[in-house]
Amino acid sequence: MTSVVETVSDIVQPIVDGFEFELVDAEFVREGKNWFLRIYIDKPEGITLEDCAFISEKISEKMDAMDPDPIPQAYFLEVSSPGAERPLKKEEDYIQAVGEYIHISLYEAFDGEKIYEGTLKQVTKETLILSVRIKTRLKEIEFDRKKIAKARLAIQF
């Protein structure tokens, strides 16, 4: 059985590709009594409110025309930019983030910590290397990518 996010991603991908946007992420979540389908898009020069409205309209048209309805319950569609702290999901995201300051959450603690922030120095299919500030020193730490729960760009203060 396919999840709602996988089904929606399959529907949305050709739409965003056709208008030269990137599908960054999709989520289908319940908040209180309401369900939300959130689609995050981007393009090299950034996303405008008009871009979000345009893609939202195209997605709505496509999903409303489908029979059977891919999401039978009522939901709110939100299309937006992933923001400054964009998630790193695809291989290409990691490659483009080399040299950037990122935040990673681990499934299990490494050296007593489950959260690290630092500059992404290197990425391979199996590992990534972060330059992390520990007190006053910079230390390069290698992480097994299978142990990374979530990764995103971060703002350094």
Which architecture name of the largest domain does CATH use? Answer: 2-Layer Sandwich
SSE string, helix = H, strand = E? HEEHEHEEEEE
How many separate domains make up the residues? Answer: 2
Q: Characterize the main sheet.
A: 5 strands, antiparallel
Helix content: 10-25%
From the alpha carbons, calculate the radius of gyration and give it in angstroms. Answer: 18 Å
**Low-confidence segments, ≥5 residues, pLDDT <50?**
none
Total beta-strand segments? 8
Could you give the order of strands across the largest sheet? 7-6-5-4-8
The CATH C-level name of the largest domain is Alpha Beta
How much of the polypeptide forms β-strand, as a percent range? 35-45%
Under CATH, the topology of the largest domain is which?
A: GMP Synthetase, Chain A, domain 3
Topology overview:
Elements: H1 4-18, E1 22-31, E2 34-42, H2 49-64, E3 76-80, H3 91-96, E4 101-110, E5 113-123, E6 127-134, E7 137-144, E8 148-153
Parallel strand pairs: 2-3
Antiparallel strand pairs: 1-2, 4-5, 4-8, 5-6, 6-7
Helix pairs in contact: 1-2
Give a description of the structure:
With 157 residues, the chain is α+β, with helices and mostly antiparallel strands. The protein has two domains: 4-80, RimP-like superfamily, N-terminal (GMP Synthetase, Chain A, domain 3); 91-153, SH3 type barrels (Roll), CATH 2.30.30. The chain has helices at residues 4-18, 49-64, 91-96; strands at 22-31, 34-42, 76-80, 101-110, 113-123, 127-134, 137-144, 148-153. The protein has a five-stranded antiparallel sheet with strand order 7-6-5-4-8, with no helix packed on it. A three-stranded mixed sheet has the order 1-2-3. A hairpin with a 2-residue loop joins strand 6 and strand 7 (137-144). The longest helix has 16 residues, at 49-64. It is elongated, with a radius of gyration of 18 Å. The chain starts with a helix and ends with a strand. 15% of the residues are buried.
